[in-house]
Design a protein that fits this description.
5 strands, alpha/beta, 261 residues, 8% strand, five-stranded parallel sheet
């Protein structure tokens, strides 16, 4: 099936660490490869601190491969309830990494409506979370499935289903000339997202008008208390007279009021 929809691959740490340079080069022939920043940081960490020497060798091999590979690092991210299985504070390091990779793939799909985003991971739980999102242009495959795809040029069934769904959603745009060019036509040394992909901006948490009024009242109350306290210290007689005229209860340290004879 020839499709006008470009393929964007998002590679998880598990897929990268289970392959070598030859496989990484084959992945690049399937589509444009994106590397979440958190994955790149973890690979750099493993270069010097991996528990097993094999992991360290793979990490170092990838760091040598990546700069000239055309793989594009990205910090794009967007949260979705289907990706979360608990609070971030209670997640393990591995679970947090999977969460951030899933949010990267989802964010990329939201910013690329006319491109199919394929998350490549060996984490079955993450694949289930991606499937639960239900986005037409987002799916997941294992590293083995991607390798088979690259070598025999046959798309996995899940990828085929999503491409057909995308084609069905755009009946008037079946002509490839009507669709944007693939990001792979850009310079392979581009490090940011292509022009057709913009990083979703998280809505900044602006304080509401009610919270602003409440904050202003707290500041005004603090100033008033400070003025009254200074008045009491400088002119205690006048202050106590004013305080009694207002009918307020006596303050600690004030002499008891004299009872009328």
């Amino acid at each position: 099936m020839t499709t006008p929809f470009p393929i964007l691959l998002v590679l998880d740490l598990s897929a990268i660490m289970a392959s070598k340079t030859r496989e990484w080069q084959e992945f690049s022939r399937v589509g444009t490869c994106y590397l979440p920043d958190v994955v790149l940081e973890e690979i750099q960490f493993l270069c010097d601190r991996a528990v097993e020497s094999e992991e360290e060798q793979t990490a170092r091999e990838f760091i040598r491969f990546q700069p000239k590979s055309g793989w594009q690092p990205t910090d794009i991210t967007l949260s979705h309830p289907a990706l979360r299985s608990g609070t971030v504070n209670t997640l393990s390091k591995k679970a947090r990494l999977s969460l951030e990779v899933g949010e990267c793939a989802y964010g990329l799909s939201e910013a690329s409506a006319l491109q199919l985003v394929v998350l490549v991971t060996n984490d079955q739980l993450l694949l289930q979370h991606i499937q639960r999102i239900g986005a037409t242009n987002l799916c997941g495959v294992t590293m083995a499935a991607l390798l088979q795809w690259a070598r025999v040029h046959q798309k996995p069934p899940g990828v085929m289903q999503h491409l057909k769904a995308m084609q069905g959603n755009l009946p008037g745009m079946a002509d490839p000339s009507h669709l944007p060019r693939s990001p792979s036509s850009q310079s392979p040394f581009t490090t940011g997202a292509p022009a057709s992909i913009r990083r979703p901006r998280r809505r900044s948490a602006q304080p509401s008008a009610l919270s602003q009024i409440f904050s202003g009242l707290i500041v005004l109350l603090g100033i008033t208390i400070g003025v009254l306290f200074a008045w009491r210290l400088i002119q205690p007689t006048n202050f106590n007279k004013f305080w009694k005229q207002m009918g307020l209860p006596a303050l600690p340290g004030d002499p008891p009021a004299r009872k009328p004879r």
